[in-house]
Amino acid sequence: MRLPKFEYLEPRSLKEASKALAADPVGTLLLAGGTDLIVNMKHGVIQPKRLINLKAIPKLAYISDRKDGLKIGALTTLHDLASSSLIQEKYPVISQASKEVAAYPHQVMGTLGGNLCQGNRCRFYNQSVFWRGTRSTCYKAGGEVCHVVPGRPAGGREPIECHSTYCGDMAPVLIAMDARIKVVGRVEERNLSLKRLYTQDGKKPLSLKKGEILKEVFVPSPSGKTLYLKWRLRDSLEFPIVSLAFLIERNGDGKTEKTKIIFSGVGSGPVEASEAEKMLKDASLDNLMIEKVSHQAVKEISPMRTSIASPAYKRKIAGILLKQALENFKS
Amino acid sequence: MKRILKLHVNGEEFEILTEVNKTLLEVLREDLGLTGTKRGCDLGACGACTVVIDGKPHLSCITLAAAVQGKKIMTIEGLAQEGKLHSLQKAFVEKGAIQCGFCTPGMILTAKAFLDEHPHPSEGEVKKAISGNLCRCTGYVKIVEAIISAAENV
Amino acid sequence: MAFENGESKVREYEIIGKPLPRVDGIEKATGQAKFTVDMAMPGMLHGKFLRSAYPHARILSINVEKAKRLSGVKAVITRDDVAGIRYAFVDTPRYPADETPLAVDKVRYIGDEVAAVAAIDLDTAEEAIRLIQVEYKPLTPVFDPEEAMKTGAPDIHEPFELGSKTEWEDWGVHRGKRALDWRDAKNLSGRTSVAIGDVERGFAQSDYVREDRFETKATAHCALEPHAALASFEPSGKLNMYLSSMGIFYKRFVLAKALGLPISQVRILKTYVGGAFGGKIDLFPYEFCAAFLSRMTGKPVRFELEREEVFTCTRQRHPTIVHIKTGVKKDGTILAQKIKFIADNGAYRGSGAIVVYLGHAFSIPVYSVPNYHYEGYSVYTNNPIRGPQRAHGSPQIRFAVDSQIEMIAEELGLDPLEIMLKNARKKDDILPNGDVLKSCGLSECLEKAAQASGWKEWRGDRAKRTQERESTSRYKRGLGMSSCSMFSGAPFYPFASSAIVKLHDDGSVTLYTGATEMGQGSDTTMAQVAAQELGLQLEDIRVVSGDTELCPIDHGQFLSGGAFVTGNAVRLAAADAKSQLLKLAVEMLGVEEVTLEAKEKRFYVRGSPDKSISYSELIQLSVQRNNGNPIIGKGNMKAVQEAEFYPSLAKAKGHFTDAYGFAVQVAEVEVDTQTGLVRVNKTVTFHDCGFPLNLSIVEGQVHGNVSMGMGQALWEEILLEGGQIQNPSFLDYRAPLATETPSMISGMVETQDPGGPYGAKEVGEGSISGILAAIANAIYDAIGIRFTQLPITPEKVLEALTLPAHPKACLPVGRGEGRDKEKVLEALWKK
What we know:
The structure holds three protein chains of three kinds. Chain A is an alpha+beta fold. Chain A is 29% helix and 19% strand. The longest helix of chain A has 17 residues, at 311-327. Chain A is globular. A five-stranded mixed β-sheet of chain B has the order 2-1-5-3-4, with helices on both faces. Helix content of chain C is 28%, strand content 23%. A seven-stranded mixed β-sheet of chain C has the order 3-5-1-12-9-10-11, sandwiched between helices. Chain C has a five-stranded mixed β-sheet with strand order 7-15-14-13-8, sandwiched between helices. Chain C has three domains: 25-32 and 496-638, Aldehyde Oxidoreductase, domain 4 (2-Layer Sandwich); 35-141 and 151-178 and 229-273 and 280-306, Aldehyde Oxidoreductase, domain 3, CATH 3.90.1170.50; 193-220 and 316-489 and 646-828, Aldehyde oxidase/xanthine dehydrogenase, molybdopterin binding domain (Aldehyde Oxidoreductase, domain 4), CATH 3.30.365. The longest helix of chain C has 28 residues, at 562-589. The interface between A and C is medium-sized, with 27 and 33 residues.
């Protein structure tokens, strides 16, 4: 599959990159590892006129241990995260999750920033020009209809929605750990929680403003235990059908102080099951509670038919993953 | 608009006049005539296009040639040194880990990069390392045997 | 994982049988091996297709003017340019060729080729495709084969007048009366009917009768090298083609016929083939158009299909619906069996007419069934085209038969192994079509597989099994078994293999064989046969293969005849050369022929090692004394001795093959009852391939078969919605990765077939078929749930596990579309 023609830029600084991006935000895209972007370009769902290679900018890849937490440059590769002895020792779930992304070469090429900012996915979107030519162009690809919910008339009065699914592995883990990100624009830098990066809007999944580029992720020192459970059919290569990052902090009496339940693969962004989290506060984890919480968490997700796995199956698996996670911490 | 790309491949410097929208796979095969690196799917899902860049495996079908200028690229043609086979190549041949041979270049290079980093892997670690390289002929059994054998004999 | 041949008597030869490293190993390990996709020629044009986005539509008009005018485009062709040309894998008076290089009146599936472009580069070709305008009138499509057979279904093909001779007539079959009355339902592309004994009486005499329905889905070959072809013409008008194929002589025949060229004017040159598995036999539009466009433009033309095109527009395995009713005595002896085998052909016949024959032919050699009735239907639908895929029909029928055997065993309180042993065919059995099992190690394979897998210990204690099955533990393990059979060559053009052995001055050899090296190791095993025969080392043999100009005819690699047919031809060629040398040696040494022993390129007198003569000397002598005869050996082997043509596909009468290979497989699975995930921990395969020509290569073939079978049992499915493939990529089509590799034990049962070279017969295709039922049976053993529909995905297992009650009898567990057993059986025998 041939790539379309584009202009290729190698800026020398993030500010320069940000300026170039802001100058033509619709026609310019950022290239990091390329494992997502280049595939989408071959499929013709994105047609950038210009590509900015972030890997050409020095000093954007680093893992830095601070007293209060970990600073990771956005261009740090997943492979470096996986093999960092610092991370393996102090933040093992980050290393584990990195190893679950696709396969070995994708981890070498792929970056943390790229993985966090990966494009949403849908079985009607991530296909070739020929494949999509059997239907009208979908909303996400620039058309007026969403094939996931057919029957909704184009040009109708309700606003059209894109139901494409967020399938990243790193986001649920880092959100569970209360990660914060540093975003660099033309003029200023912004700090925000990673969770706020995601709009839950399939058409425009990231809240980045014009010209903004993710520069750094900060992970506070872990206060509890975090698990990452990824469900897919084969043990490698695939995006999650459903995945779960689960964090639990217990107080001195063994009661649950804080939990985080973040899913991937079930919504247009990482999905937090906050009501289920509330249920767990101060609770002791017995079989009944585990059952209740899982049941509740499943109610808080609405997977759509955006992949070959059915929504019903995704809900089942989400419940099972949470049960599995909770079983680890049974009272 | 064509421009000159400077690529360092198998120890040699090449200047290639080509379009900037070419993938490394296209440049290797079409401009440099190095057909050992294969196109199996062109979308990064089968590993047949794997090359080693700065010691690590990359999928050349989803790598822009322009983005890897100045880096050390090794294709399967550059693995054997002065006619002497690398221990992995020897092991693959001796252990019967090659059938049609199409996945072989990518598979060997992935294994090489992996063994360079993990010289004493377990069978499970080997399987995980090559899980991005699809093989339809061998069922992977002899491939894993060959890699473990090469690791033991290095 | 070790190769276990401890007890079986694998004969020791010096070369043959030994696990010698492949002769093409180094070439492939260093990236020097050239595949079709690696070939390029100066001035080469690139070809692309415009494909239909409709599953069924009439073509009203095609406008290529804009495309033709695009700078860099050298030719654009449509139906007008290739009018009247038809070809197909099956082309007989009863089943005339139904494919055209480009769509003529209609498009019949999403992906159907409508126009082709040749341009100076791929970007220009793709742009040209975008400029072609086609007006379609959509027609009602049909995607379900049972629906397609109903009276009201849309006609996918209209009957047409038989024009020129069909392929079979070219090969000598007489046209006779073209019977159209075999079409007893709509949209049929093939029909096979076999009746033996009295099946109703057999059922009446049975102590237990059961009927079940099984379903399998379309699967993909996933050969890693994409389909490709490069065509160029010499000034004399001779066509040279590089193509990725597995039967170059057959391909040459069809290509020459379609292009209207004399067969000697078409040459297919050797390239290595990056896997085929049955998916590269048919003549494809891209091959035809490469040649056609090359002739038109005077330039070489290359087509390389995208992976999505390979998934969509080449071939797939036939999805099947198998209804099977079996009657047994209470000791498990099969008395009667009635089978209805429905194959969803897709938009063109492909190999439909053959697969419905093979659903019978690959099963009848396994168990002895005195009263038997088989009806096979291959049906046109507007789905992608189905064709041969590894074991072609055998996986589907064996899945059905052996799943049901286990179900019968359960009801009768027997061990399925007992039933299999009781009914297994034996050496010297004569099959209903007259084929004789001159060697048959099926029973021994059953015993050995049972032994190696700990079958009796596991299954022996039924109470313990039931207890484990019904326990609350999360992971449950089970064992399952199945057996299968595969032919070793069949009568199909060119009906034979031939080989030439040429000796060089130094006593080493060049072997010419038309066989294609596509991973199955034929270059190596054939070299081993020649080396063994001539007392040479493997290094002394150079192989020239896969070229229709340089090599004599070869049977092809799609009929499992590599070892049996080609192997025999090679052995005979080597023997011919050897006898010429021996004649001279006898003269020179003054001894009897029987005293001579061939070793190290010399003939030695046994017992007198100083009395010898080298091949070198003998060749010199031959040249000097016999008017320049440099010693060339020739050998040939007909595929099936007593058959001229393919057996009657319609009635399954007539010889099919001269040797059958057998395999028995046991799978050990572990089911995670929490998630429905099934892991295959271990497989045991015992294979009767007569004699393994190269132990390492045979083992490798078994591993590949097990992996593919496992994939197709558990995860692989070409998902279709409205005739469109939902997962045409390696990301979403789930072929096994290295992380899914079970521990594989394989063993040989050596039966030394009297017809095969060194006793060798089929290997490389058979042992996929036993894995599917073995896994399904193992899952039943583990959790007590019977799955009659493949693939057995975690989603299906989870759904079944969470049903309120597990029905013991079969239920095709689909995506929540529960089927009532009674309704299924009611509809079972309705036409």
